[in-house]
Automatic annotation (TrEMBL):
The keyword Ion transport does not apply. Pfam families: Lysozyme_like (PF13702), NLPC_P60 (PF00877). Belongs to the peptidase C40 family. Transmembrane segments: none annotated. GO terms for biological process: proteolysis. One of its GO terms (molecular function) is cysteine-type peptidase activity. This is Lipoprotein NLP/P60 family. The lineage of its organism: unclassified sequences, metagenomes, organismal metagenomes. PROSITE patterns: NLPC_P60 (PS51935). Residues 84-152 form the NlpC/P60 domain. It comes from human gut metagenome. Keywords: Hydrolase, Lipoprotein, Protease, Thiol protease. The keyword Manganese does not apply.
Length: 152
């Protein structure tokens, strides 16, 4: 079984969830998480006003773990696949340096990076020239409403 969402949900439910998924299709789904919680709680529901729950079922969960845990965690995880080739190229380059030490003024792999140095380097590898400093990068880019923003 190779499903990161099983690992995430098992962190909340315990290892029994991984066994349950292995016997029920080998892939996490919200329905599996919901059924697992229903079985473990004996069907007892509790109010749960998290916006994800409210939009999905009106605001409840079963009284065992949190069947919404994967959705709650995944909203904070980095997206690693993008439909736009340029965005994917930028992200592929940036992810090479994930975990590297921050170095003020750093702008390449030999020096490590600061924020704007990493941005300039990664966009450059994708064929897009950016100025060196954060303010200059901000000034050089097109500003859009938040409602038009996309991942990446």
């Amino acid at each position: 079984m190779n499903d990161i969402n099983v690992v995430i949900q098992s962190y909340n439910y315990g290892g029994g969830y991984a066994d349950y998924v292995a016997k029920n299709g080998k892939k996490h789904s919200f329905n599996l998480a919901e059924n697992f919680a229903r079985n473990k709680s004996g069907g007892t529901k509790v109010t749960y006003t998290n916006p994800i729950a409210v939009s999905k079922n009106g605001g409840w969960r079963y009284n065992y773990g949190n069947m919404f845990y994967v959705e709650l965690v995944n909203q904070y995880l980095t997206v690693k696949q993008f439909s736009n080739e340029t965005v994917q190229a930028v992200m592929n380059e940036a992810l090479k340096y994930q975990g590297w030490k921050y170095v003020y003024g750093g702008s390449n792999p030999n020096t490590s990076f600061d924020c704007s140095g990493l941005t300039q380097w990664c966009y450059g590898k994708a064929g897009i020239s950016l100025p060196r400093t954060a303010q200059a990068q901000y000034d050089a880019t097109q500003h859009i409403p938040l409602s038009q923003a996309q991942a990446g």
